[in-house]
Automatic annotation (TrEMBL):
Stated family: Belongs to the fructosamine kinase family.
Keyword Lipoprotein belongs to the record: no
GO MF: ATP binding; kinase activity; protein-ribulosamine 3-kinase activity
Protein name per Swiss-Prot or TrEMBL: protein-ribulosamine 3-kinase
Alphabetical UniProt keywords: ATP-binding, Kinase, Nucleotide-binding, Transferase
InterPro entries: Fructo-/Ketosamine-3-kinase, Kinase-like_dom_sf
SUPFAM superfamilies: Protein kinase-like (PK-like) (SSF56112)
Pfam families, sorted: Fructosamin_kin
Length: 306
């Protein structure tokens, strides 16, 4: 695979350093190159790995282009002979903790698209003004499927957030579980919860699409010399509160992160219940990935919200 990478990136040398590391889904490590600096390369030989890495490439690119929070710059997604890899910028993760900056930068990323929409509306009153700058996103979804873990997410564009989240996130996961496991309690609880979901958004103001990391648990952020870094995303445009679901599920963020975040994006009425809904998605996704150890957590949230 290393020769293929060298050819794809027009490199003369590709030298491993620092050893390799393995996550839940892929393995990876750092490499010195003679053309593009130090890079980090993730490898995976699963049949659908190309789709996974293409989605991660697009996710990193979308977040990188906001210029709000540090992410590894994506370089290339490569696939050949049943093997796939993702090449990104290498970032040394040995900096001091700056939780307040993490919260602030994450919020700035979440409001980036709203700012673009406001700028477009303002400039539309001027000749040629609306044609300048990045194009804001007005729908919920993403340009291609992204994978939270190795399972693909349905990112088909939708004008309505509640419909998108219900159909493309919760129902998508529940349908997989019912097909594989035929769980009676899940089958009974889902229609009850599905009817109630719109109620949790009655106190919520207008939801403007935000670019999301999508899988921001404590293992997917760290700090470099200059501040926080987020990585291993499963991005799409959605409700900013959605990010809090996985953050809450596994913890590891602390009050300083949330306080700084809410200085930029104030917490809205009813957020705690909606965050439970968003956490439910990740319990269901983990149940589909790792088995019945996540069944209890999934059903408990469904019971409390139904």
């Amino acid at each position: 695979m290393e020769e293929i990478i060298k050819n794809e990136l027009s490199l003369n040398s590709l030298e491993s350093f620092g050893g390799s590391a393995g996550g839940c889904i892929s393995r990876g490590g750092g490499y010195h190159t003679d053309k593009v600096g130090d890079v980090f390369i993730k490898f995976n030989d699963k049949p659908d790995a190309k789709r996974m890495f293409d989605g991660e490439f697009a996710s990193l690119d979308a977040m990188y282009r906001t210029h709000t929070i540090r992410v590894p710059k994506p370089i290339k997604s490569i696939s050949s002979g049943g093997r796939s890899c993702l090449v990104t910028e290498y970032i040394s993760l040995n900096g001091p903790s700056k939780p307040a900056q993490l919260g602030k930068d994450l919020a700035r990323m979440h409001i980036h698209n709203a700012n673009l929409l406001a700028e477009k509306e303002h400039s539309s009153g001027f000749v040629g003004g609306a044609e300048k700058g990045p194009t804001p996103v007005t729908q919920f979804g993403f340009e291609i499927p992204t994978c939270c873990g190795y399972l693909p997410q349905n990112n088909d564009w939708c004008d309505d957030w509640v419909a998108f989240f219900t159909r493309n996130r919760l129902k998508f996961q529940i349908d997989m579980l019912l097909e594989k496991r035929g769980d009676r309690e899940l089958m009974s609880l889902w229609p009850q919860l599905e009817r109630k979901i719109p109620e949790y958004f009655k106190d919520c103001g207008p939801i403007i699409p935000s670019i999301l990391h999508g899988d921001l648990w404590s293992g997917n952020y760290s700090y470099c010399e200059n501040g926080p870094v987020i990585f291993d995303p499963a991005s799409f445009y959605g409700h900013s509160e959605y990010e809090m679901g996985i953050m809450t599920m596994f913890g590891g963020f602390g009050g300083a992160v949330y306080s700084a975040y809410h200085e930029v994006i104030p917490k809205q009425k009813g957020a705690d219940k909606r965050i439970q809904l968003y956490e439910l998605y990740h319990h269901l996704n983990h149940w589909n990935h790792f088995g019945s150890g996540y069944r209890g957590g999934s059903l408990s949230i469904m019971q409390s919200l139904s």
